[in-house]
Amino acid sequence: MRRILAPILLILGLSIGLVYAQNVTKSVQLSQDPSGPIGFDTLLNTYFQGHILVTPSVRPVPTVTGSTCGTTAPSVAGTDVVGLITVGTSATTSCVLTFGTAWVTAPACIITPRAALAAFSATSTTTTMTITQTSTANDVIAYICMSTS
Q1: Sorting pLDDT into bands at 50, 70 and 90, what band is 99?
Q2: Where are the beta strands (DSSP E) in 49-136?
Q3: Measured between alpha carbons, how far is 68 from 66 in angstroms, rounded to an integer?
Q4: DSSP label at 107?
Q5: Threshold 0.85, pTM exceeds
Q6: What is the DSSP string of 24-43?
Q7: Taking the C-alpha atoms of 43, 48, 53 and 59 in order, what is their torsion angle to the nearest 10 degrees?
Q8: Taking the CA atoms of the chain, what radius of gyration do you get in angstroms?
């Protein structure tokens, strides 16, 4: 009886362990099929066949503020990752984008103003990105932010 019961209990125990080890809520399954929408190579490089779209989610959206960000309310259209900031109608030298959800580490952000400016820069923390620029009004600033964690 012991010879039969021991292997059955061992198999049952391993099966339960596998069930708990496979408890994944979200993932991307890699495949040998190169015709899929996303490709991966052996060095974990990623290949996309189309556009990379970032859609708003259930997370809070970012906001833009700043006493020198224009007299009319500046606005932002986008997410914490990518978006467009429209500055106010008066001369603007600085705007602060407050991320909807704080990053774990400060992201690296790239900004591009649509107006030809003499100088502009961005600094970021885990909760905000501050854009400093030469004085302009009604400008639109594109941004993209990413982080390693």
Answers
A1: very high
A2: 63-65, 75-78, 82-86, 92-98, 108-113, 120-124, 128-136
A3: 5
A4: P
A5: no
A6: -SS-----S-TTSSEEE-TT
A7: -30
A8: 24
